[in-house]
Amino acid sequence: xxxxxxxxxxxxxxxxxxxxxxxxxxxxxxxxxxxxxxxxxxxxxxxxxxxxxxxxxxxxxxxxxxxxxxxxxxxxxxxxxxxxxxxxxxxxxxxxxxxxxxxxxxxxxxxxxxxxxxxxxxxxxxxxxxxxxxxxxxxxxxxxxxxxxxxxxxxxxxxxxxxxxxxxxxxxxxxxxxxxxxxxxxxxxxxxxxxxxxxx
Length: 200
Known about the structure:
Elements: H1 3-7, H2 9-13, E1 38-45, E2 49-57, E3 60-66, E4 77-87, E5 95-97, E6 105-117, H3 127-133, E7 135-142, E8 146-154, E9 161-166, H4 178-181, H5 192-196
Antiparallel strand pairs: 1-2, 1-6, 2-3, 3-4, 4-9, 5-6, 6-7, 7-8, 8-9
């Protein structure tokens, strides 16, 4: 079994692809991606509204659920809860997950783009090592989010949690609140309500 397939076992076990329109990971086509690796942020109206922050690492999307969504203010530290790896194909997903299925609710593709590793020597400090070490620094080139972001693990074992923080660079803006002022999809321009009420 190849490594990316092994990493997706948890994702696949939680889903019945005869019932959910979510991608099964067999086709990893991201035609919108001009550069790699990619990142996506999906706004997800499940039992509670949250934002799923995903970055491409070793053939899968490493994922964190961010309850309040990403901020452009460096003084804001946003809780980021790790979730299972998702297939690359999920980076293009937008639609409705049926009630009763894992993660049920409406998914909107809120932002997407590419990113780069900000460590001084990316070859000796790849993202896999940064994740293991609990300190990730990347530069995002998205449609809504740009600039440096850090994902930092605090605490240990069952007390461990991650924080998503905007780095203090030229793209930082404490006055901007994109989750509020730019709520719609970068893929279709639709709102959550329009996706929820659509037939596709």
